[in-house]
Amino acid sequence: MTELPRSADRSADRSADRAADPSSATPEGRSVIHDLGYRPYTGPRLGAASIAGALLVTGFRNTFGLGRSGRSKVLPFILLGLNVLPAVIIGGVMVMVGLKELPIGYAQYASTTQVLLGIFVASQAPVLFSRDLRHGTISLYLARPLPSATYAVARWGALLGATLVFLLGPILILYAVALLGELDVSDQSRQAAVGVGLAVLLALSLAGVAGLIASWSTRRGFAVVATIALLLLGNGIVTAIQAIAGEEHHARVGEVAGLFSPYSLYRGLMATWADGDVATPPTGVPMQAAYVVVFVGLSAACLAGLVWRYRRVATA
């Protein structure tokens, strides 16, 4: 039998090596890209507005624990249930007894449940702001075509929406009860409109204050404690000052003190626009205008602070 030349053996060995190593099959051993059948994304590419809308909806759901674990739903829904429970009870009493007027006004309702409202915004603001800072996911959000200001406004809007649900739910229940009780439609609509306007002002300020505090803390507990201390304890101090000023007949001191808390601002305007009972309500057009300006200015300042804060985070 004839033996193959040694050169033929070497050629066969090189062919086997090329089959085992595809990169060696190209000139000078360069790599080659193989088409494995993957197809690129050819759908529409959404911009910052769509991302912000998704953040807004997701943040609103997360505020009530939706889309999260079952434990996350307990506190917000308990607070929401306790908040609307008096309105439901009032509705039942009016149907059974046949009252000719609501036992509590639309605007006065939020003033009586302010503790529940303060706990709600204090506990849920860190869900939207502190978690992203603590886990570092904020850098992933801002790596997308999403400006830091848009992120801050979207998160603030989610908290504002949840706060409005908390405030407007009882007003809608009371309004429906009033209509079912055949109370005067025009009078009830006017009072309900005033209550809605005041609720919007209060929600704007509370969402701004709670969101700004939470944006500076990576620990949820710290943010909750700081928000409760500022909102509830601060309101208690202002209320005490107003009560003392009213007893000592220094009404102007109480009016000025009312400018230093969102709740006292709300009560002052409630006394002016909805005939609420307050120790030292703002008297005169200039003081009433000052209450409105401070209320709106506080909300705008807190939102501006949020935007500034996340611009710093984006450039850090």
Topology record:
Elements: H1 6-20, H2 48-63, H3 70-97, H4 106-112, H5 114-128, H6 130-135, H7 138-143, H8 148-180, H9 185-215, H10 220-247, H11 251-257, H12 262-273, H13 285-315
Helix pairs in contact: 2-8, 3-5, 3-8, 4-8, 4-9, 5-8, 5-9, 5-10, 8-9, 8-13, 9-10, 9-12, 9-13, 10-11, 12-13
Short description:
With 316 residues, the chain is mainly alpha-helical. The chain has helices at residues 6-20, 48-63, 70-97, 106-112, 114-128, 130-135, 138-143, 148-180, 185-215, 220-247, 251-257, 262-273, 285-315.
Structural summary, described in words:
With 316 residues, this protein is mainly alpha-helical. Helices cover 74% and strands 0% of the residues. The chain is built from 13 helices and no strands. It has helices at residues 6-20, 48-63, 70-97, 106-112, 114-128, 130-135, 138-143, 148-180, 185-215, 220-247, 251-257, 262-273, 285-315. Helix 3 packs parallel to helix 8 (148-180) and helix 10 packs antiparallel against helix 11. 34% of the residues are buried.
